[in-house]
Design brief:
The complex is a heterodimer of chains A (409) and B (72). Chain A has 409 residues and is an all-alpha fold. Helix content of chain A is 79%, strand content 0%. In chain A, α2 packs across α8, α2 packs across α15 and α3 crosses α15. Chain B has two helices and no strands. The relative contact order of chain B is 0.05. The chains are: A mainly alpha (409), B mainly alpha (72). At the A-B interface, α5, α6, α17 and α19 of A face α1 and α2 of B.
């Protein structure tokens, strides 16, 4: 048993990190707004998202461990240059835009404590630079784990606001739609699904599995890592909903930073925890998104692209990493920058990439030639195709509702 | 001053040209390397890729429509 735990500690990482990073600044805002709007009423829905996240991400573990290739390279190799360039360029664009939204979240969170955005941006870039400075994947992963642990700050935060356990059980566990299935409810459901699976997650975890050096024999551990990560991601989402559902029910929330400020007036510690959690969420999102892009960049162009390389050994990999960080951070510092428009763009561009990524993922997992005995079984195909079709339909509707809100009014 | 500017312009032009041509050469190399898709093009794979193209064209049409309504 002790040996198994030790082995899990060594082999875990990509799954837990990607799942907790999934609760990025945008995700926390969505959960905070959901709790404030419907109280505990949609907690049951988040539990449904656990298998959704697990089944999609688990496929990247098998694909990475068996093929030893990142997702960008796998698409180029399997489907040719047209789909390769489409996925790569779309990923680069959507990652950069998402990175901007992470910086918006981080600067807003630390802004609550009076820290100017420029200090936040410079500080974050320096810390992220130090994380990769040693040129060791292991070092990066352990530091990332510290920030993952900080993401659980929402759990003590929820206890601080003293929620009613019986209310949570009565209103949160039994599936129902509080106030009926309205258009607004549908929008909230779509937003919550939209935050569950993002294109960068697929690219990040597969490349991360390859960089960590997981082998075929490690796949069960990788799956467990992903499963535990998906439990954490749902747990964090549920506790954010409990916090805002207890204290801010009936309030229209537009950002998690706004929720933190309002919470500060009611319970100073809870508001502080929420703000720290928001900063951490943005930071986790930023470290994973910037790396997902750098790995893809290196894979496609055939340049050294490992966190085990030192900076002088992989200049393009680290150059791209810092380039995206600095440019995305700089955008948030421009006075009057169209940040709302950028957030809208993220939703729309992600919709163009997500269906393609899910289709490629399932097709690659059915390629017996490269996957061998690790290819999808019939039951895995039924589950993954059902999830993919549902996500494609709902994310398309979400993208359309962002573009044409009147159609859904 | 004008001479210095002209030298700088020329140098910048050379670097830009070199940069663009080296990127273009790299893109050509990548296209050549992955020229033949490795996945067997079964009817299911062909149908999936076809549907994906249709879906993307639909999205492009929607975005063009949005742009058109914005400038109206």
């Amino acid at each position: 048993m002790a040996k198994a735990i030790r082995l899990f500690v060594v082999l875990s990482g990509p799954g837990i990190i990607v799942m907790l990073a999934d609760n990025d600044a945008g995700g926390i805002t969505t959960y905070a707004a959901t709790g404030a709007k419907y109280g505990y009423g949609l907690i049951w829905f988040l539990v449904f998202l656990l298998p959704v996240a697990y089944y999609i991400q688990e496929m990247t573990v098998r694909l990475g461990a068996v093929t030893k290739r990142g997702h960008a390279e796998a698409i180029f190799e399997a489907f040719g240059p047209f789909w390769g360039w489409f996925s790569f360029l779309d990923l680069i664009l959507v990652n950069w835009l998402t990175l901007v939204t992470e910086f918006i979240g981080m600067t807003a969170a630390l802004g609550i404590f009076g820290i100017p955005p420029i200090f936040t941006t410079i500080g974050v870039t320096i810390v992220m630079g130090l994380m990769v400075w040693r040129g060791r994947y292991w070092t990066w992963e352990k530091i990332a784990f510290v920030f993952c642990a900080l993401n659980l700050v929402y759990i003590p935060c929820a206890f601080l606001v003293k929620p009613s356990i019986s209310d949570i059980v009565h209103n949160g566990i039994i599936p129902h739609f509080p106030g009926g299935f309205t258009n607004e409810m549908f929008f909230f459901l779509m937003a919550n699904i939209g935050t569950t699976i993002a294109p960068w997650m697929v690219f990040f975890q597969q490349s991360s599995v390859v960089d960590k050096g997981l082998q075929e024999k490690d796949i069960p551990w990788g799956k467990m890592d992903t499963f535990i990560g998906s439990i954490f991601t749902v747990l964090v989402a549920v506790f954010v909903i409990i916090v805002t559902g207890t204290v801010l029910k009936g309030v229209n929330i537009t950002s998690a930073a706004q929720a933190s400020e309002m919470l500060m007036g009611i319970n100073r510690y809870a508001g502080t925890f929420l703000a720290i959690g928001l900063f951490d969420a943005g930071f986790l999102g930023a470290i994973c998104i910037s790396l997902a892009g750098s790995w893809a960049f290196g894979e496609v162009f055939g340049w050294a692209h490992s966190l085990n390389n030192r900076m002088r050994e992989a200049p393009w990999f680290y150059g791209y990493y810092f380039f995206t960080l600095v440019t995305a951070g700089a955008v948030t510092l421009i006075p009057g920058a169209p940040l709302v428009l950028i957030t809208l763009f993220v939703q729309v561009i992600a919709v163009t990439l997500l269906p393609a990524i899910l289709v490629f993922l399932i097709l690659l997992l059915n390629d017996g030639e490269s996957m061998g005995r690790f290819r999808n079984t019939r039951s895995q195909n039924i589950i993954s195709v059902t999830i993919a079709v549902a996500i494609i339909l709902l994310s398309t509707l979400y993208g359309l509702s962002a573009l044409f809100p009147r159609w859904f009014a | 001053m004008a001479r210095l500017r002209s030298i700088l312009n020329r140098l910048f032009g050379i670097f830009l040209l070199r940069g663009v041509s080296s990127v273009a050469a790299k893109v050509r190399e990548i296209n050549q390397r992955y020229g033949t898709p490795r996945v067997k093009m079964t009817p299911l794979v062909k149908a999936s890729l076809f549907l994906l193209r249709v879906y993307l064209l639909f999205l492009v049409a929607i975005l063009v429509f949005k742009f058109w309504t914005l400038i109206q």
